[in-house]
Amino acid sequence: EQRDGDQKEFLQAVREVFETIEPVFKDHPQYEAAGVLERLVEPERVVKFRVPWVDDEGHVQVNRGYRVQFNSAIGPYKGGLRFHPTVTEAVIKFLGFEQIFKNSLTGLPMGGGKGGSDFNPKGRSDAEVMRFCQSFMTELQRHIGQFTDVPAGDINVGAREIGFLFGQYKRLRNEFSGVLTGKGLEFGGSLTRTEATGYGLCYYTQEALRVLRNDSFEGKTVVVSGSGNVAIFAIEKATALGAKVVTASDSNGYVYDPNGIDLDVLKDIKLNKRGRISEYAERVDGATYFEGCRGVWSVKCDIALPCATQNEIDGTEAQMLVDNGCTVVCEGSNMPSTPDAIEVYQNNNVLYGPAKAANAGGVAVSGLEMSQNSYRLSWTFDEVDARLKGIMEEIVANSLDAAKKYGDEGDLMQGANIAGFIKVADAMVAQGII
Ligand code: NDP
């Protein structure tokens, strides 16, 4: 805290993990002797760089680029790139720190990292986005590689951006390798990667409901926030599993559709036209648009799936969810619930699936993309989807085992933190003080 006092998102993420893993230290004195916690909170490397580019009017623009290579104990650094004006070193560090445990939970050999820029792609032309991506990669390429650090997408970094980034990497390094995941299917991408985080979130929620409540999505009313990659495919899978999803949102507002979100319309607005969620209410009878994205938590539901951004549910909003009958919150976005919100879930017996477990499906399929690139082959959609489902179910099982062994039985948050931590800590001890 002395060193990083102003990095509030990072400290929030660290506190949540440290508060829950304490019981592990009694059985594992070697962790303390090897300074595991002190080393864990210090990234192995932080790269911060200038990203200059020229806009369509011929003006020079300068953004900040980041790559935090947090922990490589169990594999090459792995984690997404975020392009958003709210990106700071503290945000990238919190995301990178969370990523260490998430990647460990998938069971695949991936370390933790994260990166991005304060570049805002909203309103920018394809040519501007391309020039920005090329400039960003011109610096980033010296720090990454298929065996070192393998970035992927995150907020505002989708297929278009990954394509531009991959093209520039290939050109500069004269090398065609699996250095990025989320690539186009024509050049090494994996089927199911686009759907993976949203689908994985629903597989996780369905399994947790089955094991802990003998229940399922069938017949449930679901509130989803966001309307990006994670939200769209969470809505698709929750609907396929028999639920009715009644909301979607963006940073300006949310739509309420009592008949269940029409996915064809939503996909057309967001994926084809890069439009705003307000357009949904103009196109669908019975749907209403409300200004202000946070109002989405006032909508009555059984299950809430936050899929937009960090700290999007505070204590008051969590209480509103509970008062309206919500009994399940599983997180698609990273750290969407403030510590106060988590306390409300815990005090009201809400089935709470924390982000690092519930949204691990995206990085899990990224790991499978790396495997396919190494083998130089492509698995079918159903093959990858089945592996994704298996991984999400295993994450629920491993979290519950860890919670039972070391902490509070049934506590998915504590279980995820402990299960993710132990593997990384053991590797850090075995590799010496580095
Ligand atoms: P997208 O860029 O596809 O979508 C983000 C959505 O969230 C948009 O609807 C966006 O609205 C909204 N949003 C972004 N910032 C804010 C904000 N400050 N306030 C309110 N709404 C906001 O990103 P993804 O769907 O990929 O990512 C969503 C979340 O899921 C993030 O937390 C990300 O870290 C996490 N995640 C993503 C994974 C992936 O595979 N993509 C994997 C694991 C986690 P608007 O258009 O108005 O900005």
Automatic annotation (TrEMBL):
PANTHER family recorded: NADP-SPECIFIC GLUTAMATE DEHYDROGENASE 1-RELATED
Entry-linked SMART domains: ELFV_dehydrog (SM00839)
Domain of life assignment: Bacteria
Classification via InterPro entries: Aminoacid_DH-like_N_sf, Glu/Leu/Phe/Val/Trp_DH, Glu/Leu/Phe/Val/Trp_DH_C, Glu/Leu/Phe/Val/Trp_DH_dimer, Glu/Leu/Phe/Val_DH_AS, Glu_DH, Glu_Leu_Phe_Val_DH, NAD(P)-bd_dom_sf
Keywords: NAD, Nucleotide-binding, Oxidoreductase
Residues the UniProt record annotates as site (Important for catalysis): 154
Positions bound to NAD(+): 197, 229
Subunit structure: Homohexamer.
Binding site for substrate: 78, 99, 102, 153, 366
Active site: 114 (proton donor)
Domain Glutamate/phenylalanine/leucine/valine/L-tryptophan dehydrogenase C-terminal: 190-432
Gene3D superfamilies: Glutamate Dehydrogenase, chain A, domain 3 (1.10.285.10), Leucine Dehydrogenase, chain A, domain 1 (3.40.50.10860), NAD(P)-binding Rossmann-like Domain (3.40.50.720)
Pfam families (UniProt xref): ELFV_dehydrog, ELFV_dehydrog_N
Family per record: Belongs to the Glu/Leu/Phe/Val dehydrogenases family.
This protein's record includes keyword DNA-binding: no
GO molecular function, one term: nucleotide binding
GO term, biological process aspect, one: glutamate biosynthetic process
Record-given protein name: Glutamate dehydrogenase
Keyword Iron annotated: no
CC annotations in GO: cytosol
PROSITE patterns: GLFV_DEHYDROGENASE
Taxon lineage: Bacteria, Bacillati, Actinomycetota, Actinomycetes, Bifidobacteriales
